[in-house]
Amino acid sequence: MTLLEIEIDSRYRFPVLEIILALLVVLSLVMVRFQPFQSQTPEAKLLSLFMFSSGLPLLIIQLLIIGYISSGFAGEIEKGITRIFLSYPIGRGVYFVSKLISLVITPVLILSTSQLIAFGLFDAKLFLSRIADVFGLTLAMIGPLILLSVIFLLVAIVTRKSGTTIALSIILWLMFGIFTSVLSYMANITRSYYIAVILWVLSPIHAFQSHYQPPAFATIFKLTLVEAWTYLSLHYAIIIVLILSVFIYFKRRFEV
To answer: How confident is the model at residue 139 (pLDDT cuts 50, 70, 90)?
Structure first.
């Protein structure tokens, strides 16, 4: 078995996580039935469904990823398991990529798949008629999750301590949420386009919100769909650069 197969098999042997997430998303979407969405446009309704159904599952996945990284990466570095792995003919790049996929990408894919399946069951007609919008909103939803998770990997590499990684990751996670909330508030109050741009790049779901449901008092924030996708692309460009930077640091600078 390859290193990645070992990681996936040991961490996701039983589909408990998938079942819990599927139930949470379905329950969230069932609750949406009681919301007054009938007067909204299909695009606005789509955004509302995503916003209402993604909160709790995103919270659970983010906490699980923090736990996985602290135990499955920082913990292995702290206990010397990483040194043992790298003493075999396993490249550092292969080791890092296997951790990235098993600790970050896999949980995010589980979340996205659960969300899409539940949403398809909730409103199949809207789902199929707006498949491009669904794809964009899904990417916008999981983008900050991936961004923060890669930062948590860097924290694990630098600190090499499981407990320190958990503490710093939770602090950074809370700070990111507070920062984006402050940016959203300041953009609406000051009507500053530059503050809004920072918000849209860091949290592209706000860019799609500015396209589908622009604030009535701030028409300057009305975006076209192309502009929303542009900010989403910039967000993922930052993620790719960050992943490459952490990869290079681990491969060249990390000392076991």
So the answer is: very high
Kindly report the three-state secondary structure assignment for every residue of the chain.
CCHHHHHHHHHCCCCHHHHHHHHHHHHHHHHHCCCCCCCCCHHHHHHHHHHHHHHHHHHHHHHHHHHHHHHHHHHHHHHCHHHHHHHCCCCHHHHHHHHHHHHHHHHHHHHHHHHHHHHHHHCHHHHHHCHHHHHHHHHHHHHHHHHHHHHHHHHHHHHCCHHHHHHHHHHHHHHHHHHHHHHHHHHHHHCCHHHHHHHHHHCHHHHHHHHHCCCCCCHHHCCCHHHHHHHHHHHHHHHHHHHHHHHHHHHHCCCC
3-state SS, one letter per residue, for 19-63: HHHHHHHHHHHHHHCCCCCCCCCHHHHHHHHHHHHHHHHHHHHHH
What residue numbers bound the domain in which 35 lies? 3-252
Give me the pLDDT at residue 5, please.
66
Q: How far is CA 43 from the centre of its chain?
A: 22
Q: How confident is the model at residue 217 (pLDDT cuts 50, 70, 90)?
A: very low
CA quadruple 40, 44, 49, 52: dihedral sign:
negative
Axis crossing angle, helix 162-190 with helix 193-202, rounded to the nearest 10: 150
pTM: 0.85
Give the total number of structural domains in the chain: 1
